[in-house]
Amino acid sequence: MSKMDPKTLHVLEYPKVLERLAAHCGFSASKELALSLQPTTSLLELRQRQQEVTEARLLLVTSDATIGGAHDIRPKVELARRGGVLEPVDILDIKSTLIAARELKKHLEKRTSDLPRLADISTALPNPSGLVDVISRTVSDRGDVLDGASQKLSSLRGEIRVAHDRLMSRLQKYISDPSTVSMLQDALITQRDGRYVIPLRSEFKGRIKSIVHDQSSSGATIFIEPLAVVELNNKWRELQLAERDEIRRVLAALCLQIAEHAEPLIWGVEALALLDFSFARAKYADEIHAAEPIFVEKLKIRKPRVERSKSEPTPETPELSEAEAYYPTINLIHARHPLLDPKTVVATDFTMPPQTRAVIITGPNTGGKTVALKTVGLLILMAQSGLHIPAQSGSSLSIFKALWADIGDEQSIEQSLSTFSGHITNIIRILKAADEDALVILDELGAGTDPQEGAALARAILAHLMDRGITTLVTTHHPELKAYAHSAPGIVNASVEFDVRTLRPTYQLTIGIPGRSNAIAIAQRLGLPEAILAVARSEVNPESLRADNMLDDIKRQRNLAHKERQKAEKARAEVHKLRRELDEKLEKIEDERRDVLAKARAEGELEVEILKRNLESLKRQMKKVKQPVEALAILEEKLEVAEEKISAPVERKTKEKKKAPDVFSPLKLGEKVTLRTLGSQGIITTLSENEAEVQIGSLRIRAKLGDIQRKSDEEEPVESPTSKAKSPSKSKSAGQSASSTLTASPGLELDLRGMMAEDAVSRLEDYLDKAYLSGMPFVRIIHGKGTGKLRQEVRAALKNNPQVATFEIGLETEGGDGVTVAKMVKD
Description:
Layout: H1 6-11, H2 14-22, H3 28-35, H4 43-62, H5 74-81, H6 88-109, H7 116-122, H8 131-138, H9 151-176, H10 178-181, E1 190-192, E2 195-201, E3 210-215, E4 221-226, H11 227-260, H12 262-287, E5 294-295, E6 299-301, E7 325-327, E8 330-335, E9 348-351, E10 358-362, H13 369-384, E11 396-397, E12 402-406, H14 419-433, E13 438-442, H15 451-467, E14 471-475, H16 479-487, E15 491-499, E16 504-511, H17 519-526, H18 530-539, H19 542-624, H20 632-647, E17 672-675, E18 680-687, E19 691-696, E20 699-704, E21 708-710, H21 721-725, H22 727-738, E22 749-751, H23 757-773, E23 778-782, H24 789-800, E24 804-809, E25 819-824
Helix pairs in contact: 2-3, 3-12, 4-12, 5-11, 5-12, 6-8, 8-11, 9-11, 15-16, 19-20, 19-22, 23-24
């Protein structure tokens, strides 16, 4: 795409947005991306940029992922690639950048499903195997080359410590020997030019054979190196130089390894910069409460070609064929200027009606016309740059290949241009460059000169732009342009509102209604004498006054309708909220019902199993005594019925949702309603704006609309979850009556956790006796895992118990190895 006009970017304050964006970047590489960000016209690139911001906002909300510790190491890597030796602190920057990239890449690899775009960018992050480990083994976190960086360095540093100790020991004798300590200025060892010396008083110069390295400014002290320690000092110094050379050799070898990974390191920094740039755009979007814009194609309308008469001049640029007319979309909902204080800025709606190519905004000075233009232009630039815009979700825009703006005072002393000349010069430049894919913004068109000629020029310029199919936004004070917009196709009026009572603008933009200057009303409010105001009114065309009064009435009606619509929307939202809360409560009740039924079902299954065993046992006993068993058939049939009922699955009840009556839609003739004042139901027979006639039986009653309520279907009663939960208990009581001769059940489970082995085995045997006598088919013993001793004792006891047929480890859902399930012996 061609680059956007720099002057337009400046007057729309786009660079200031980039500066605020750059403040959220984590390091210099991403700041460069932020400050160089330009709008694009590629729909694919735009969607990618917007997706990056959307995913980054989700990532910042759901995790604490950052690029902490990253640096722009590209210059340092380039130096290493050219054979240079880096300082330890620069190598540590490379290490911290690699670690940051590794952690971020690891995090994004786990989020490929919900963050596909960021995860794709992270594939370019560097992962040089072993380079971080090599740096860690070579350089400490404080920037020192470690002893273990090489064997020679370790050996040298050992020798340096020995040489240093010998040197200090020898010098210590001088400052502690009574024969020499009196000649010293201070009993201390210091350094001059890298060599250790002692401070000697000047009057004792020559008393100690030595080399003088320095003296104090007063001359009272000289710093000497005794000849006896010169060789030790030389040895220590030589080892230091050898250490320096070895450190440089180690760093050079390390830089060679860095140079081998130069390409992935540089690519990785660029990928890190792009990710951090995405994070910065996300943070800025959160700061200004922005939303992702929707990009839509221009609306294509086919119309017959408009033929020009021979007398009409042919435009310099061929006009757009009306057979292929394209109309842009600019739909900004609750848009806010991003550079204004979010606490005080007034949100405004800017929606171009269908088949509209130009909007003419009129209204008083300081009413917010220029701010409205700048807001629209700047938000379009932000959206096409891949930024979220400070507007409500659902705002939609077409893509413009260029933006041209003439805003502000174009006066130039250096070029001898007046304000009017400056504007015209800029407009000429815009007319030469703009085409049907551009958006042109003109502030105070035709201002700064004679009103009549200015209005004529403004209308001619606007007509020329319309002939060429160029989308245009204009502010003006010329009333002639209001009439032109009213009569010309594809152009609409708009206005900014002004509160005459407070003498302050409301900054609310109204599309479809032209504005008025309110000059006489403002003057009256400020106290201008009525006699002067009367003369002024008499000079104004009466038709203009009537038109202004009509505009005032229309605006008042629109404001009232807007307020009522807001109330209705608020009420609708409250209804939806209450409906959601009710649905959630019903879902919770249904969950509780299913839990109760599931528990009762489990108990019923156990009781049925016990009854079946008891019947089998009773059959065997009756056969032994040669008694007829036919009497038990009835009990078996009832038992089968109970078992079928219990085995039925517990299904979730779904309440059929009935369409709720729309209490906000208009009433209709023939609709059934309830009259609140009488509490009676009837049918609407006549409707007016504020009243309705309702027929109740043979009686017809006129009532206000506020006293009429729609008749809604009664809600079906919700079945109590406890009512059905009682059904299994019937089987339970039946089972208890049928097995009244048996011992009561001790329960399905026995928990032995925390008990000593002997106590646990004693309790287990007592429990098994009761379970056997009650006819239970199986039991669960909970002993836990722990050290395994209690488990061994329990299973040994089960193995030796005659009432236990078999036992096995519990399922994972039952507790796994911490539970043993024992099946009881049948009679």
